[in-house]
Write a structure and sequence with these properties.
Structural class: alpha+beta
Largest sheet: 6 strands, mixed
Mean pLDDT: 75
Order of helices and strands: HHEEEEEEH
Number of helices: 3
Distance between the termini: 67 Å
Helix content: 25-40%
Strand content: 25-35%
CATH architecture: Beta Barrel
CATH class: Mainly Beta
């Protein structure tokens, strides 16, 4: 009798694990595709975080995290006027940390940081990977 319960439970866990691992695999794959697909791209530094249960919980599991940012450079579109960005739900989120630099790829309607869209964190303002990505994005933007 216990095998009848254990096997379906095991299969459910495997299914959930596999679907979660592929949840972030959508979207455009090259920088050029992400540039063409994304309405707003900007370089910024997170200055502070707001972790709030009052604003809601993501999937009922973890609190909503909203970061305030200092805008460094707009590469395309318009970043949020209120200079706030929210972590995406689930494992696709780019975790926000104060003092860290990011290139955010977001929609203009909702400022959510996610790997799927292409948002990326960097160790510092002059991080070599950030500078390389910025140069490519500037070229795509015609700057």
């Amino acid at each position: 009798m216990s095998r009848r319960i254990i096997f379906p439970a095991f299969m459910l866990l495997v299914t959930l694990f596999c679907s979660e691992s592929h949840a972030c695999s959508g979207g455009a794959s090259t920088l050029e595709e992400r540039f063409n697909w994304t309405p707003a791209i900007f370089y910024a530094r997170i200055t502070e975080l707001e972790v709030s249960n009052d604003l809601g919980r993501i999937g009922g599991i973890r609190p909503l995290v909203v970061g305030r940012f200092e805008l460094i450079e707009v590469l395309k579109g318009s970043p949020p006027i209120d200079r706030r960005i929210m972590e995406a739900p689930g494992s696709c989120a780019v975790r926000l940390k104060p003092g860290v630099y990011y290139i955010f790829f977001t929609s203009e309607e909702s400022a959510i940081s996610s790997f799927t869209a292409g948002s990326t964190a960097f160790t510092g303002y002059d991080d070599p990977e950030a500078l390389q990505m910025l140069a490519k994005l500037r070229a795509l933007a015609g700057h």
